Recover the amino acids of this structure.
C-alpha cells in the first residue's frame, strides 16, 4: 500500500482484512509510512497523516509516537491543522503525559485568538485534558471569556470552568461573579452552562451554596418561562421546551432548597406547577417529572406536595417501560420511612411488580414490599410474599425468606400464625434460609406450650411429605424427640386426629438417618430425637437401642460420638437416662425486640414458676441432690475410685445466675473459689447515621488477642449487606471469623457481632483500620474508621 493512501482507502483496506494478522500487517505498514513522513521537515500532509493515526488509535493499536506531532500542529497558524492537532491532543494526551505541558502556551494564545472557532478548540481541549497546573495558569483567561459578548464562547467557557473547579476547588471563588451574571442570558446554551457551573460550585463549597440561595427567584423565573413558552423548534423535544435545561435547573433547585425553609418556600409553587402541567406520556416528560419528584422529596416541601410526588411515582409504576418502574421503586424505597402512609396507597401496584419478568424490577419490588409490611397489613402482605416465594428466582429466595422472618417476628398477630408462616417458608424454600432459622424456630415452639401438640403433628406430616428441606427436617426431628408422646396420643384439637404408632415415628426418623439427602447436622438431630423417644415410648426401646448402636461405628465422627454416648446411657447409666433425656426447659431472652431471632445475650433458664403451673416437678437446689448423682457426674468426666469428700451445704458456693459454668466446675473439682470475671474493655469507634460500632479486646496470650466488633442500627430504616473489613500492620496476622448476621434491623432491634483474632509476635503497636459497607433503602454506603489504640492495651 502506498504511503499516500487517503484515510478512506486505509479504512477500506483494514475492514477488508480477513484475519487479525492481516489487519496488523496493514496497520504496521501504514504506521511506518506515517513515522517516515513525520520526520520530514517539509510535510504538507501532516493533518492527513495524523487523522489516519487517530483512526489507528481508535482501533486499539499504539499511536503514542504522534504526540509531538500534535503539539507541532496545535502551534500551526492554519485552522485545519489546529483542528486535527487539538483532536489528537484530546485523544493521545492526558494530564500525566509530559507533552501536555508543552501545549499550555499554545492554548493560552488561542484563547485570545480573534477567530471564535480557534478559541472554541482551545476551550474544548482544556476542558477535556487540562491538568491542575494548566488550570491554575489559564483560569484568568477562562474568567475573561465568561464575560465575553459572544454566546458561543461563553457557553464553552462555562463548561471549561466546571472542569477547572473539579480539578482545583480553590479556583471556584474566581468564577462566582461571572456565573451569577450568566443567569441573565437569554441563550439556552449559556444558561445551561451557567446552571452546571453553579451546581458544581454549590456542591463543593457550603459557603458558596449560601450565597447562591439568593438566585432561587431568578431560577424560578427561568423555569416558569420554559414551562409557559410556546413552541420553539430550536429547543422543543417531543412537546417539552428544552427538557435538558429544565432538568439541570430542577437539580440545582434541589441543592439550593435542601435544609433551607426560605428557599424551599420560594420554589414550592413552581414545583407544583411543573408536576401538574408536564406531559407524562412521553419519556422526555417523565424525565422532567422524575427530577421534580426528587427535588420535592429532598427539600423542605409542603406535605401536599410530597403526596403529589409520591402519586407521580405511583403512576410511574404503571408505565410499560421497566426502567421507569425501576427508578420509581428505587425512589419510593428511599422515602418509605418518612412518607410511609403515602407509599402504602400504592401497595397493590408494588406487589404486582413482583410478577414482572425483569429480575432487577423483581428485586426492587421485593425490597419495597418488605419495607411496607406493618402490623395492620401483615397477613395480606405475607400472603403475597409467600406466593411470590413459591415462584421467585433462586437468587432472590434468601432475601425473601430473611425478610419474611423479620416481618413475621416483628408483627406476628399470634404465635400460631407465626409458626405456620415459618413452616410454610421452610416447606417452600428450606434450603435457602439462614443457619439461625432452626434455633430461632425451636425457641418459638418451646415457648408456645399451648401449641406443642399442634406443631408436632404438623411437622410430622411435613416430614412424611418431603425430607429434602434440611431446615424443616431438623426442626421436625427436634419436635418429635421433645413432644413425641403428644404425637402418639393423637389427641389434638387444632388438627384432624391422626393415629400414629411408635413404629411409624421410628420409621420416619430412620428414613432421615438413612437418606442420602440428609446432612451430618440433620442426622445428628434425627439420632438425638430417636434417643429421646426411648423415654417417651414403651414398646420399642430395644429397636431404639439397636438403631443407636449401629451408628457407634459411623464414619461421621460427630454422629459416632453421639451414638457412643447414647449407648453408654443405655448400658452404664440407664438409671440416669430419664433425667438426662427429659424435655428442654423454657427459654428466656435477656434482650427483647430481637428480629429474625438473632439475640445478643440469650440465657437458658429453667422457670420453676412455669413448671409448677403446668404440674411438673420442680427440681431441688443442687446442694440438696443425693451424693450418688455427684459420683455419676464425676464418673462421666473421667472417673475416680476415691470417695468424694462431702461439703456441707452451708459452705457451698451459690449458683450464679450469669451462667458461670467455670465456677461450678471448680466447685465440683475441689471447692476453689473462682476469681471474679472482669468484663473486656469496650470502646465506641464509629457512630454515624444511626450506625454504631463498638470494639472490645480480650488478651488470649502474650502474642494473641481476640477483638470483638459489635454493630447496631438505631436509625428508622433497616440495613442490609452489612460487612466489615479490617486491616492491621504487616507484621500482625489477622483472622476474621464469620459475622453473626449481615443485616441490621431498625431501632436497634438486633446487633451484629464479628470476632477478629490477632497474632502479634513482634509486639508492635497495634492499630486497626476498619471499612464499613452496607445498603440502606437501596443506596450503598461505605465509610472507614482508624483505631489508633485498642481498648485495654497499654
Amino acid at each position: 500500500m502506498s504511503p499516500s493512501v487517503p484515510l478512506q482507502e486505509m479504512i477500506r483496506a483494514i475492514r477488508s482484512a480477513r484475519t487479525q494478522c492481516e489487519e496488523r500487517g496493514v496497520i504496521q505498514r501504514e504506521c511506518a509510512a506515517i513515522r517516515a513522513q513525520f520526520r520530514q521537515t517539509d510535510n504538507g500532509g501532516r493533518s492527513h497523516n495524523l487523522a489516519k493515526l487517530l483512526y489507528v488509535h481508535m482501533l486499539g493499536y499504539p499511536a503514542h509516537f504522534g504526540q509531538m506531532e500534535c503539539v507541532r500542529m496545535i502551534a500551526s497558524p492554519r485552522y485545519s491543522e489546529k483542528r486535527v492537532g487539538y483532536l489528537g491532543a484530546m485523544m493521545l494526551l492526558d494530564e500525566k503525559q509530559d507533552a501536555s505541558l508543552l501545549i499550555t502556551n499554545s492554548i493560552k494564545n488561542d484563547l485570545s485568538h480573534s477567530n471564535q472557532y480557534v478559541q472554541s478548540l482551545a476551550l474544548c481541549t482544556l476542558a477535556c485534558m487540562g491538568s491542575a497546573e494548566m488550570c491554575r495558569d489559564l483560569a484568568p483567561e477562562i474568567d475573561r471569556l465568561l464575560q465575553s459578548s459572544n454566546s458561543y464562547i461563553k457557553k464553552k467557557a462555562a463548561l471549561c470552568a466546571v472542569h477547572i473547579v473539579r480539578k482545583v476547588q480553590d479556583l471556584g471563588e474566581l468564577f462566582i461573579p461571572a456565573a451569577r451574571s450568566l443567569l441573565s442570558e437569554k441563550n439556552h446554551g449559556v444558561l445551561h452552562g451557567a446552571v452546571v457551573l453553579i451546581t458544581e460550585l454549590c456542591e463543593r463549597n457550603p459557603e458558596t451554596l449560601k450565597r447562591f440561595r439568593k438566585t432561587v427567584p431568578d431560577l424560578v423565573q427561568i423555569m416558569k418561562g420554559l414551562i409557559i413558552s410556546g413552541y420553539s423548534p430550536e429547543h422543543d423535544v417531543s412537546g417539552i421546551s428544552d427538557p435538558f435545561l429544565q432538568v439541570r435547573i430542577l437539580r440545582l433547585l434541589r441543592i439550593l432548597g435542601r435544609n433551607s425553609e426560605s428557599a424551599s418556600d420560594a420554589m414550592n409553587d413552581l414545583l407544583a406547577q411543573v408536576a401538574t402541567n408536564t406531559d407524562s406520556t412521553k419519556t422526555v416528560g417523565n424525565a422532567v417529572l422524575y427530577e421534580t419528584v426528587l427535588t420535592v422529596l429532598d427539600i423542605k416541601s409542603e406535605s401536599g406536595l410530597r403526596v403529589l410526588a409520591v402519586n407521580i411515582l405511583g403512576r410511574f409504576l404503571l408505565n410499560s417501560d421497566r426502567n421507569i418502574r425501576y427508578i420509581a421503586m428505587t425512589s419510593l424505597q428511599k422515602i418509605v420511612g418518612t412518607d410511609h402512609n403515602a407509599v402504602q396507597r400504592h401497595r397493590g401496584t408494588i406487589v404486582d411488580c413482583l410478577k414482572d419478568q425483569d429480575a432487577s424490577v423483581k428485586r426492587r419490588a421485593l425490597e419495597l414490599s418488605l419495607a411496607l409490611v406493618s402490623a395492620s397489613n401483615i397477613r395480606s402482605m405475607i400472603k403475597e410474599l409467600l406466593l411470590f416465594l413459591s415462584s421467585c428466582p433462586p437468587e432472590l429466595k434468601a432475601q425473601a425468606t430473611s425478610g419474611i422472618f423479620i416481618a413475621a417476628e416483628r408483627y406476628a398477630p399470634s404465635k400460631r400464625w407465626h409458626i405456620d408462616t415459618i413452616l410454610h417458608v421452610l416447606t417452600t424454600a428450606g434450603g435457602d434460609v439462614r443457619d439461625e432459622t432452626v434455633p430461632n424456630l425451636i425457641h418459638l415452639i418451646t415457648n408456645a406450650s399451648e401449641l406443642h401438640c399442634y406443631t408436632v403433628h404438623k411437622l410430622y406430616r411435613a416430614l412424611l411429605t418431603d425430607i429434602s428441606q434440611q431446615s424443616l427436617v431438623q426442626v421436625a426431628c427436634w419436635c418429635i424427640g421433645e413432644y413425641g408422646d403428644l404425637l402418639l396420643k393423637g389427641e389434638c384439637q387444632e388438627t384432624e386426629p391422626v393415629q400414629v404408632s411408635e413404629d411409624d415415628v421410628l420409621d420416619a426418623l430412620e428414613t432421615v438417618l438413612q437418606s442420602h439427602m440428609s446432612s451430618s447436622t440433620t442426622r445428628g438431630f434425627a439420632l438425638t430425637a430417636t434417643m429421646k423417644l426411648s423415654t417417651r415410648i414403651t414398646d420399642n426401646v430395644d429397636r431404639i437401642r439397636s438403631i443407636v448402636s449401629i451408628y457407634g461405628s459411623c464414619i461421621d465422627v460427630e454422629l459416632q460420638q453421639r451414638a457412643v454416648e447414647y449407648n453408654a446411657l443405655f448400658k452404664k447409666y440407664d438409671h440416669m437416662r430419664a433425667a438426662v433425656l427429659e424435655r428442654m426447659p423454657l427459654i428466656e431472652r435477656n434482650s427483647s425486640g430481637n428480629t429474625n431471632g438473632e439475640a445478643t445475650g440469650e440465657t437458658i433458664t429453667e422457670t420453676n414458676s412455669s413448671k409448677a403451673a403446668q404440674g411438673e416437678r420442680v427440681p431441688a437446689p443442687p446442694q440438696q441432690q443425693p451424693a450418688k448423682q455427684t459420683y455419676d457426674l464425676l464418673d462421666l468426666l473421667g472417673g475416680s475410685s476415691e470417695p468424694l469428700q462431702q461439703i456441707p451445704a452451708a459452705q457451698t458456693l451459690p449458683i450464679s445466675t450469669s451462667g458461670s459454668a467455670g465456677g461450678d466446675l471448680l466447685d465440683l473439682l475441689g471447692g476453689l473459689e473462682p476469681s471474679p470475671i472482669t468484663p473486656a474493655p469496650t470502646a465506641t469507634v464509629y457512630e454515624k447515621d444511626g450506625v454504631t460500632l463498638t470494639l472490645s479486646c480480650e488478651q488470649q496470650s502474650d502474642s494473641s488477642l481476640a477483638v470483638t466488633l459489635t454493630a447496631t442500627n438505631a436509625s428508622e430504616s433497616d440495613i442490609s449487606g452489612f460487612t466489615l473489613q479490617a486491616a492491621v500492620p504487616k507484621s500482625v496476622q489477622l483472622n476474621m471469623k464469620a459475622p453473626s448476621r449481615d443485616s441490621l434491623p431498625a431501632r436497634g432491634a438486633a446487633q451484629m457481632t464479628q470476632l477478629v483474632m490477632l497474632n502479634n509476635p513482634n509486639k508492635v503497636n497495634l492499630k486497626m483500620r476498619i471499612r464499613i459497607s452496607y445498603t440502606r433503602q437501596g443506596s450503598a454506603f461505605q465509610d472507614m474508621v482508624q483505631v489508633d489504640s485498642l481498648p485495654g492495651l497499654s
In short: The CA atoms of residues 480 and 505 lie 8 Å apart. Residues 20-39 form the longest helix (20 residues).
